[in-house]
Amino acid sequence: MYNIALVSSSVRIGRNSQRVALFLNNYIKENNLATVDLIDLCEYKFPVFDERLRYMKDPPANVLQFAERIIKAEGVIVVTPEYNGGYPAALKNAIDLLYPEWKRKPVGLSTVSAGSFGGAQVGPSLAFLFVRIGALVTPAVFRVPTVQNSYDENGVPVDKEASDRRAKTFLDEFFWLVEARKRMSD
Fold first, then answer.
1. Helix 89-97 to helix 122-132 angle, to the nearest 10 degrees?
2. Where does the signal sequence lie (predicted)?
3. CA 147 to CA 131: how far, in whole Å?
4. CA 11, chain centre distance (Å)
C-alpha cells in the first residue's frame, strides 16, 4: 500500500478547499488505495520564506517535521484554492522551503474555486512551479467549481456518484505515476 501526503493549502478563515481535502482523504481511505498523511498548512504557521531548509542554520522544528512528512510520502496531492488566479502564499512558502525533497516526487493537483471554473487558472501555474523544481506532476487535475455548494464542512459531496467518478479518474492517474516512480526506483 502506498503512503501519500495530502496537503490542504489554504490557511484562510472560512476556507472551503479543506472540504475537498477531507473528501479526497476519506475517498482514498474508504477505497483502501493508500495510507494518507493529511497535512494542513493552517497548523504550521511557517515563517515567511527567507531560506530553504537545507541552508538554514537552525531550522524550526515544524519545518523539519513538514520536510520529513514530504520525504516519507511516495506521492503528494495538493488541494489548493484559486486566489485571484494564483495559489495561496502559504502554499508557495511551504513549497519553497524544500527543494531536493520534491525531486521526482509524484504530485497530483486538486484546484478549487467559489466560481464556475474550478481553479482552472491556478492549476497550470502550480504545475509549472512543481515541474520547475523537479517534481512529477500528473496530467489529471481534480477541479472543483462552486466548492461551497458541492461539499459540506466534513467533505461529504452533494453528488456522491459524480464526485466519486471524478475522484477515481484523478486518482487512477496519480497512483499510476506513483507506481511508475516506485518501479523506476527499485
1. 10
2. none
3. 27
4. 13
DSSP designation for 134: T
Residue for grid cell 520536510: 67
Q: What is the pLDDT of residue 49?
A: 67
Q: What are phi and psi of 5, to 5 degrees?
A: -105, 140
pLDDT-flagged residues of the chain (< 70): 49, 186
The per-residue pLDDT for 78 is: 98
Strands in the chain per DSSP E:
2-8, 34-40, 75-81, 106-112, 136-144
Backbone angles phi, psi at 88, to 5 degrees: -65, 145
pLDDT (tens digit, 9 = 90+) per residue, 99-132? 999 999 999 999 999 888 888 889 999 999 999 9
> What domains lie within the chain, and their CATH numbers?
2-185 (3.40.50.360)
pTM, entire model = 0.94
